[in-house]
């Protein structure tokens, strides 16, 4: 259950004697290669995301009466809509991950003050929808 934290560190579990226990390290070169692939795909997808979709999501995030689960659901729907337009030869989980990250970037470029809420929502979405995929990707 070790998870990568937002600062890039791994969380650990404590033994009874208080010593932290960490799972084996992942190959940093593999992580760099995966990141480079995701960035390349993200650059291609960046042009595909329409301004209207981004502005609609910005409005959803600005609505402070909307619960976090509802915002995550709306983001999920937006990403799923974008995934339907990806080339059939592309791995769907990888495309979903990249689209979520690119969409987050575009929302934050439009309204930087939304950083905490958008970041939290994106992390929740990725943890709910793509956690196992990410674990498999970095473990391979």
Automatic annotation (TrEMBL):
InterPro entries xref list: Bcl-2-like_sf, BID
GO cellular component, one term: mitochondrial outer membrane
Gene Ontology terms describing biological process: apoptotic mitochondrial changes; positive regulation of extrinsic apoptotic signaling pathway; positive regulation of intrinsic apoptotic signaling pathway; positive regulation of release of cytochrome c from mitochondria
Compartments, as annotated in UniProt: Cytoplasm; Mitochondrion outer membrane
Signal peptide: none
Keyword annotations from UniProtKB, A to Z: Apoptosis, Cytoplasm, Membrane, Mitochondrion, Mitochondrion outer membrane
PANTHER family to which the protein is assigned, alphabetical: BH3-INTERACTING DOMAIN DEATH AGONIST
Protein name: BH3-interacting domain death agonist
Native source organism of the sequence: Caloenas nicobarica
Lineage: Eukaryota, Metazoa, Chordata, Craniata, Vertebrata
